[in-house]
Amino acid sequence: MYSGTRFKDVVIRTSCRSSAHKRRPMRRPARTNKGTWGEMTASAQPAVKAIKLSRTCAWAAALVAADAFVLNQGMLSALVGLWMLAVSLPRAVFGKPPEQRGPRLARVAIMLGAVALVFGLNWANNQIARHRADTLVTAVKAFKQAHQRYPAKLDELVPEFIDHVSPAKYVVMFSAFYYLAAPDSHSLFYVEFPPFGRPIYDFEKAKWWYLD
Predict the structure, then answer these.
(1) What gap in Å lies between CA 184 and CA 162, rounded to an integer?
(2) Cα dihedral: 109, 115, 121, 125 (round 10)
(3) How far apart are CA 126 and CA 193, in angstroms?
(4) pTM for this prediction
């Protein structure tokens, strides 16, 4: 057992330690070279992924090449345009974060521009094809008048009536004119909307009509 004096010393020491512990101030996070605690917390948040417009331009170029010079239809571009207007445009305007609204709208504008370019190129190609077809029709009729028969093939028109047989359109597939010569029928056609949509000229009836 403690004696009276020793017991008092123990009580006094315990009280002093408790008082010192209560008076000890809270330690704040030390400032480092990287900034305050708030700045460190903000820097720890995941960064927003940047939108690369170069990739969008590559997709737009691929769409023009495929749908204007290979497929030559416009169907793929129509689907892309509908998606851009119905889905991508609302997301670009109302999506988060708002800081990326400009790049998102630029991406939509690039793809819609590619869609419009495909439609314009397809229209121009069809206009070229119709003009060249009319030239061939005139040459075939001139051949018939000069030789009292229709040519067996279009190459017979060169060089007396035309310099050369031009392709119908500047596309990869279905770019040529097709001349059909039978004993009682002669016709010329080209493909306007692959694989169908074929305007055909009947020389016996002297008129244009659509094969399908």
Answers:
(1) 24
(2) -170
(3) 9
(4) 0.73
Note the pLDDT tens digit of each residue in 158-202: 999 999 999 999 999 999 999 999 999 999 999 999 888 899 999
With left for phi above 0 and alpha for psi between -120 and 50, is residue 136 left, alpha or beta?
alpha
- Which of 195, 189, 186, 193 has its CA nearest to residue 209? 189
pLDDT at 64 over 50: yes
Helices (H) and strands (E) in the chain, counts: 6, 4
Interval 31-60 mean pLDDT: 67
| % of the chain at pLDDT higher than 90 | 69
187 forms beta bridges with 180, 202
* Comparison of pLDDT for 91 and 21, the residue scoring more: 91
Tell me the residue type at 113: G
Within the chain, strands assigned E span: 178-181, 186-189, 199-202, 207-210
Phi then psi for 57, rounded to 5 degrees? -65, -35
CA angle centred on 92, ends 86 and 94, rounded to 5°: 95
